[in-house]
Write a structure and sequence with these properties.
The structure is a single chain. By secondary structure, the protein is mainly α. About 40% of the residues lie in helices and about 0% in strands. The chain contains 8 helices and no strands. The chain has helices at about 60-70, 85-95, 105-115, 130-150, 160-170, 185-200, 205-210, 240-250. The protein starts with about 60 loop residues before the first helix and ends with a helix. About 30% of the residues are buried.
Length: about 250
């Protein structure tokens, strides 16, 4: 297991500064975060370009290390989603998390592993089936919608068209066919809950957000104001609000 980007088979450009404002000062480049210089993050950008959670790996006990090792080596061959479902599920997960280039966190593989093992959340909505069946219906619905609107599969349609379908799903605007068999708004909640849990369980996302990683048995020293950092933590390269910065870039 390695936490460094150097070991990854990607041709990654390095950068030592943040993207600049446009000359007219109106908007910021969509990739407004700095490129990662140490460790690995999704798409090699993040607020903490010189932080790598694996620097603290020697402080983890064997059980903690084993859990993280499993997450880093999730099987790439999926066994819950069928062959036809896999491409749809991958496109959906990538769009939800805006992972449009490598390196990507293997979100769909982590979701597949969870559903295969039956590690569910211990409840499901009374107007939805079991989460595993909900996922299957959602993927079928995305495919039906793409075929109906565009005459092509969800996995292969243009990015803008696929994003419109996902946006309509998020806003519970999809209907007809399999969508009539479930509460669409709650189905969105089921799927995104699994996607977000998978994404933020992975160490590459910890590098992206500067999370200190497992605190056992090391523990945290400084539990005061949010600006108070432990020795192994890094200050962010920028203090901009990500929601506002992204909104400005898309304006």
């Amino acid at each position: 297991m390695s936490g460094t980007g150097a070991s990854m088979p990607f041709d990654l450009k390095k950068a030592d500064h943040l993207p600049q404002h446009r000359e007219d000062g109106a908007t910021r480049d969509p990739n407004w975060l700095p490129e990662q210089r140490r460790g690995t993050t999704p798409q090699m950008i993040g607020r903490y370009p010189d932080y790598d959670v694996f620097d603290a790996m020697e402080t983890w006990d064997d059980a903690t290390r084993a859990v993280i090792e499993t997450r880093m080596n999730v099987p790439r061959a999926m066994s819950f989603f069928s062959h036809d479902e896999q491409a749809t599920a991958r496109r959906f997960c990538d769009l939800v998390m805006a992972q449009d280039r490598e390196p990507r966190i293997p979100v769909v593989e982590l979701v597949d592993d969870k559903l295969r093992a039956g590690r569910l959340d211990g409840f499901h909505y009374d107007d939805l089936p079991d989460d595993r069946e909900t996922w299957r219906r959602v993927l079928a619905g995305l495919e039906q919608t793409a075929l109906s609107r565009l005459g092509t599969s969800f996995a292969t349609c243009a990015d803008g068209e696929a994003l419109r379908i996902v946006t309509d799903f998020a806003e519970a605007k999809l209907s007809g066919g399999v969508w009539e068999s479930m509460n669409v708004a709650r189905a969105w909640s089921v799927c995104t809950r699994a996607i977000l849990a998978a994404f933020y369980s992975h160490p590459w996302s910890w590098n992206e957000i500067g999370f200190g990683g497992p605190a056992y048995p090391r523990g945290y020293m400084r539990l005061g104001p949010i600006s108070t950092l432990d020795p192994y933590e890094q200050p962010g390269a920028t203090s901009e609000d990500p929601v506002r910065a992204t909104g400005e870039a898309e304006a």
